[in-house]
């Protein structure tokens, strides 16, 4: 069984910064990609940023230039540094991993961490 554990959410004022972290643990043979998605009330879950193990990056247009994703492949962790936060960034942020577990390729999700941007 694989677990993704997130940390770092919270309440921040507009223009502020937050850093989210996620650690994957369990019977992981290899990881193809890790990333972050978010879901605001009434909205569908959307991709925020994804990083592959070969270093390829993908960002949602709405966060380009403000969010930076990074990963430590040796530790199976992924981070999301968020700056210049806006009220529209308010959502539950979910960690995501595309990995091989016991010879099967699977997708896993964390439990989610709330990010609230408000004055």
Summarize the structure.
This protein has 119 residues and is an all-beta fold.
Structure description:
This protein has 119 residues and is mostly beta strands. The chain has strands at 2-7, 10-12, 18-26, 28-39, 46-52, 57-59, 67-72, 77-82, 91-101, 104-109, 113-117. Strands 2, 4, 5, 6, 9, 10 and 11 form a seven-stranded mixed β-sheet that branches. Strands 1-3-8-7 form a four-stranded antiparallel β-sheet, with no helix packed on it. The chain starts with a strand and ends with a strand. The mean pLDDT is 96.
> What Rg is obtained from the alpha carbons, in whole angstroms?
14 Å
Overall morphology: elongated
Q: Would you report the number of β strands? A: 11
Measured by DSSP, the beta-strand proportion falls in over 45%
The largest sheet, given as strand count, sense and whether it forms a barrel, is: 7 strands, mixed
Global mean pLDDT? 96
- The span between the termini is 40 Å
* Secondary-structure content class: mainly beta
Runs in which pLDDT lies below 50 for 5 or more consecutive residues are none
- SSE series: EEEEEEEEEEE
Descriptors:
single chain, 119 residues, mainly beta, seven-stranded mixed beta sheet, four-stranded antiparallel beta sheet
Set down the secondary structure blueprint.
Layout: E1 2-7, E2 10-12, E3 18-26, E4 28-39, E5 46-52, E6 57-59, E7 67-72, E8 77-82, E9 91-101, E10 104-109, E11 113-117
Parallel strand pairs: 2-11
Antiparallel strand pairs: 1-3, 3-8, 4-5, 4-9, 5-6, 7-8, 9-10, 9-11
């Amino acid at each position: 069984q694989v677990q993704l554990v997130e940390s770092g959410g919270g309440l921040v004022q507009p223009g502020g910064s937050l850093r989210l972290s996620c650690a994957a643990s369990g019977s992981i043979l290899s990881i193809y990609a890790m990333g972050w998605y978010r879901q605001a009330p009434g909205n569908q879950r959307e991709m925020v940023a994804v990083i592959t193990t070969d270093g390829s990056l993908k960002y949602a247009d709405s966060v380009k230039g403000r969010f930076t994703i990074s990963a430590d492949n040796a530790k199976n962790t992924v981070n999301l540094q968020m700056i210049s936060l806006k009220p529209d960034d308010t959502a539950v942020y979910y960690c995501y991993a595309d990995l091989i577990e016991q010879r099967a390729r699977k997708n896993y999700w964390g439990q989610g961490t709330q990010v609230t941007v408000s004055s």
